[in-house]
# Entry
Amino acid sequence: MNYPEIKLLVGSSQIGHDERAGRAILNPATEEQIGVLPIAEEADLEHAIAAAKSAFPAWRDTTPWQRGAVLHQAARQVRLRTDEIAHALVMENGKPLAEARGEVSVAADTLEWFAEEARRIYGRAFAGRASESRFVTSREPLGVVALFAPWNFPVVTLVRKLAPALAAGCAVIAKPAEETPAAPSLLAGCILAAGLPPGVLNLVLGDPARISKHLIQSPDVAKISFTGSTAVGRTLASLAGENLKRMTMELGGHGAAIICGDVDPIRAADMAAAAKFRNAGQVCNAASRFIVDRRIFEPFAERFAARASALRLADGFDPAVEMGPLTNHRRVEAMEMLTQDAIAGGGTLLAGGRRLDRPGFFFAPTVITEVPHTARVMIEEPFGPIAPIVAFDQVDQALDLANSSAYGLAAYAMTNDLATARKLTRGMQAGVIGLNSFSVAFPEAPFGGVKNSGWGVEGGSEGIDAYLTTKFVHEA
Ligand code: NAD
# Structure
């Protein structure tokens, strides 16, 4: 399958790179150019805003059943085109084909979930102050919303915004990441083929800072939702604040996993390593600091390192692949820097620690023990295949270390003791917690962070609230 030609989608027009300045799109497994990203000009952004603004009233006035029907049909389209979308994902992101197929399947599930949630947008009616008077509340779509998605899960991070926005009746301007525009474009194609009116969904690509600034400053954009790094989130949140725009921020994380001494260290290490190296560790809610009871520390760390060393790194299309390349060279450089810093601080390298001697952004799955708490890898979001493992003696000590992070997205605990489980799930400062599980993101469950990890939630029955506002009417 060829990599599709990438086009901006503004109103009913599609604009390719032959009409605009372009930027190379690389295959991270080979570093070869696979496509060209057309860079939106200011006029394209204005055109997208105008198209969304003019399409909004008619879409707002559709019934929830009509919007739900479009989203259900979009889910069917996505399932039918799974192979095509998954192939594009592997080519531009690098993840193994099986993981790409899984991502597409979750995208279809998410469209279905919000197709149903559209029907559950309820208001209230209650007695007013005077007899015969009524107080009525209704939930109304915000208007035109701007959605910014990253490159690690280009389809799922976008659909977690897009599906509730469309279900609520909003019109959308979406900006996928520069590295990974094809899979989101195919997703948009599925939604349009399902009968979404032109202009309700626009796709812009190009210079992220210029696009976000332009959209946030526009009086016609009511809300932004961003998934990406805390640093960029801070910039966008400031801009949104200046312009009094609503926002949802899904930012970085540095998930602590507290592994207690009463669990089987081999099973725990197998589960933890599988979770850690999924998507080459480029997962915002990944467990990325392993805090392990000293009594099981050695067998846990040894098994974890053995699993890491045994992982087969290859092109995502290779049938034997277990971990693909990182998505861009910046992550490889970050992995090298974090590894060197941890070892210089006294850490012991048990596995990996180096880039592979071949083309592509491959970095060996890396395990480091005895890492000082002040090492950068214990403080900064690693966002790659590097796992620091440290020991604890008392659960309170583990909890303090887990909570010492500025991030608060996901946290994990493994224990068979009920009292310890409750202490940890209550005490861990995180928006989502996995207890004896490393899975925390589902279409039907809320997902979002505290502290520097963000603001607001996506998913679950809460997910649609981000695109609605409450109107109150006093009927005398
Ligand atoms: P980056 O911060 O430059 O870019 C991250 C994403 O933000 C990209 O998709 C980019 O298109 C977008 N972006 C950058 N500047 C923007 C702007 N001014 N306005 C709107 N969007 C903008 O960094 P990177 O090197 O691509 O990734 C590094 C870090 O990003 C990682 O360490 C990780 O912490 C974070 N990240 C987080 C997620 C997540 O799911 N929360 C996803 C991808 C990256």
Observations:
- The longest strand covers residues 134-141.
